[in-house]
Amino acid sequence: MKFTWFNLMPWPYLPDDFREKNRSVWVDIDQKLFDPVKSHEVYNTYLDLLEYAAEIGFDAIGCNEHHQNGYGIMPSPNIIAAALSRRTKDVGLVVLGNSIALYNPPVRVAEEFAMLDCISGGRLIAGFPVGTSMDTNFCYGQIPALTREKYQEAHDLIIKAWTTREPFAFNGRYNKLRHVNIWPRPIQQPHPPIHIPGGGSVETYDFCIDNTYSYSYLSFSGYIRAKALMDGYWKRVAERGAPDASPYRAGFAQTICVADTDAEAEKLYKEHVDYFYNRCLHVYPGFADAPGYRTIKTIQTGALSQYAPPVGGYSTLTWKDLTEQGHVIAGSPETVRQRLEELAKTLNVGNLFCLMHVGNMPKEKCMYSTKLFAEKVMPKLRNVFPEYKDDDRFWCHPISQVKAGNLPSEKKALEIVGAAR
Amino acid sequence: MSLELKTVQTHYAPVRYIEGGSGAPLVFLHGAGGAAANDPFLTKLAEKYHVYAPLLPGYGDSEECGEIRDMLDFTLHTWDVVEALGLRNPILVGHSMGGMIAAEMAAIAPHDVTRLGLICPAGLWLDDHPIPDLFATMPFEMPKLLFHDVEAGTQLLTAGLTLSDPKFLQTYLVNNARQLGMAGKILFPIPERGLSQRLYRIKAKTILVWGDSDRLIPPVYAHGFKKGIAGSELVSIPEAGHMVTLEKTDQVIQALGRLG
User: Which CATH class is domain A2-420?
Assistant: First the structure.
């Protein structure tokens, strides 16, 4: 398996009465709740934690894109990824992703991802989400019924920009560009691996299968509820005649908390899990799904927005409910190992996005949980899929890395200049 | 007067339309909520006019049409419908989103429309009077935006609905996605596509009808239309909201009568 340490970057200072006093954590969240001065420490702590995860052996570190959102203060994932690319070495950079329909023109994504791939030495794993309806429609004003057509065109343009070796004209419906000729272009050939976050659209299944992209289900409701959706995906993989059902064709996001014992996990992490499920996921239902955003076919298959909370809401779910129903995998290293193995095997998922920073979790607890996971869980799950251990189609291919900060000493520089002049 | 649901072929899609009544031909363009053959306003209208009420693709049981994307597409498509129905210079009436389309039609082909009825039309935007976001509005919040008498409006909207039944809910969501998905192409995220700079082209005799307690498109919007369309007349109707056609049916029909 491939393990990506993922941080959604939640704002950790939502008040106790957030639910009662606010209608939504997203789109129209109260400006007064954000404190730019406090955010200086929040951002830097979150970046430190991502770098820490890289140091202790995760395969990749990950960031994503949300707008006007109290649980994700990353409207620009490329800024986070750029910071990470300089301070890390060898680790994969999963940018999940750029909501490509929102960039005007989308060659901007081709360029910025190329820059990230070049600066990081081929460590980029590129994500192309359609974006949630909150982000894409309500915050960024894209017309719901035209979003997918625009997304598709943006995808075609980016791939063509990455793979064409001479200037070309692109006469799209949404993009008219006479001279496309991105400079720089990515190190990875023909282009960085692509992961597509999806929420159950049949069209997205086919898109991934046909292009050999990894399908990522980024859910907060855990692996047990994800079974039906992922079964649908694998069924489609077979129907569509894909040459294999490699687990690396799929990714899954899972909230994970590790402690010495199950009891200790509850004691340490319960309040932060509560914070996430009860404050961070408090989305006004009117923003969950703009009419036209989801295709008719998708609605008919019963795939409704995951932001529609479970009946009764998350607040009625206890720690026991959340862990037993798999929203959260928490406990001793052995408990977590067992449940993740079950996840990997029941969903046939090779790319695991580990949500190890939860809600308002302080850095110390996050480090503790992360370290236990890296040392006591990860090694035992590495070979869950031995028959696919050489499948590198969905992962990055770094070149030999140049270390950041490798200037010579000033003295050495003077000597060299001296010799030259 | 009973109305019938029929189909007419146009260039891009077969179009479903409601037809009935006798009198001068009148084309009625529905709002974002759509129209049905048992619509009480259309039924009453058909006592006086020969009514044609085409459904936009995706509305009711009609086929969707991906080729219609922007305001010009909507405008020309609706002219295609008028042509396909074999009508020349019918009285053109539109409610809300339909009013926006009707105004665009009259602006783009000013010599083909001589009588225009705009019932609380969409199409303008005033920063000081933002129109509520219809697309982020929950069904239970709709009545207070749409009706003067919220309680009666709620009953009208929810009569016969069983929201607790998952099958019904799915049908509801599919209809909503089809209809509002289509409407969103010209109404999302702001129901304005440059009409204000084209209003001057309208040559038709124009009647504007507005409910005094319209909370979706407040009556202040009437002034922009009145100012933009030379010689237009405004009929304000008290104790009526955005669904003035249902709340004060007779008064709306009487107002349209001034078109002659």
Answer: alpha beta
